[in-house]
Amino acid sequence: MPASIVDRQQELGLGRAFLDGLGEGPAALLLEGEAGIGKTVVWRATLVEAARRGFRVLCCVAEQAEARLSFVGLGDLVGELADELLPALPAPQGAALEIALMRSGSDPERTPDPKAVAVGFRSLLVEAARNGPVVVAVDDVQWLDAATARALAFAARRLDGQRVGLLATVRVPLASPDPLGLERALGADGFVRTRVRPMGCGVLRALFERRLGYAYPRPTMRRVAQLSGGNPLFALEIARALGPAPALEPGAPLPVPDSLRELVTGRIAALSPQARDALLAAAALSHPTAELVEQASSCDGLVAAEESGLLGVDGALAVAARDDSLPRLIAGRCRGGRRPAVVAAARRYRGRQRGK
Ligand SMILES: Nc1ncnc2c1ncn2[C@@H]1O[C@H](COP(=O)(O)OP(=O)(O)OP(=O)(O)O)[C@@H](O)[C@H]1O
Ligand SMILES: [Mg+2]
């Protein structure tokens, strides 16, 4: 595996086990996680390892802007395989793929028959796997165009005994728990789903040293870990904004770089109203605890906010609303709706607790 990767032993181990298993039949590995948590890094490293082993890698990085373009993902996956293998396919399948992939000679006005495309794609994978294991790799499945996703799901259900693996990343929260139907297609034995976890302080330190050439003393590292929620992308952004030798006043908020602000804003926008209420309650309290936040919002809201990674519940009851800077940002973003009621409730409960 590439030396530029920091840590991720567990995820890389799952990647190797996935590749090891491909000698015997189909398998799938799904890497889930929030934006910036490090899914693509693990995905890419596993593909490098697959290529090193001489496996054939068919790869597609889905883009949000192209999610509505039918079969654009399939075009990336099939790529140069088409020239080599299309002639070996039964004519109707080959013709349907030619149209779907808009290859020269196909009529641009014709729409492809989705079933023939899916059958053709499956045949293509079987052909390719004759010479050795094949890895079909999709980064950011949530943006894969629906036509390609359906063809992939169709093929996945019909790969019995074939040396074909599917390696995908997907952002959480998920619109659908199994976006490509891989669990249903391959069963518990053939399908592994893993959540890419936040990085701890020590790993972030190694990441900074590797990527930036500097790191910070322990108290600053701890604050960066807390503000970023252990998300390597956020942590790197914060460290870039801080620079190698920040002069931090004790207790002063860490800077929230614009890039992190945008990411957090996007994540807040995607939350349920209950989760937003919980964030807001935590932001309104100077010393939030899980109990206070739950009382001021709801149990479901607290759980959802914690799952989002924006609110950390440490130990039994202490809630860390990620340093000082983020609560302010959250409070600004959760305007409207139940905002005044939630803030008032948080203050009321805090007052009651003090009076105990
Ligand atoms: N284990 C790691 N070692 C080195 N750098 C890492 C590691 N994990 C993440 N990074 C860095 O953090 C950034 C985010 O990682 P990555 O792109 O893999 O996240 P992601 O989960 O795929 O995010 P998105 O959902 O936005 O695609 C990258 O710039 C990468 O360089
Ligand atoms: Mg990614």
Task: Name its key features.
52% helix, single chain, binds magnesium ion, 3 domains, Rossmann fold, five-stranded parallel sheet, two-stranded antiparallel ribbon, 356 residues, alpha/beta, binds adenosine-5'-triphosphate
CATH architecture of the largest domain: 3-Layer(aba) Sandwich
Number of helices: 17
CATH level-1 class of the largest domain? Alpha Beta
CATH superfamily of the largest domain: P-loop containing nucleotide triphosphate hydrolases
Strand content: 5-15%
SSE series: HEHEHHHHEHEHEHHHHHHHEEHH
Oligomer: single chain
Main β-sheet, in a few words? 5 strands, parallel
Estimated helix fraction: 40-55%
Secondary structure category: alpha/beta
What is the terminal-to-terminal distance? 56 Å
- Total DSSP E strands: 7
Q: Please tell me the total number of domains.
A: 3
Ligand set: adenosine-5'-triphosphate, magnesium ion
- Which spans have pLDDT < 50 for at least 5 consecutive residues? 315-324
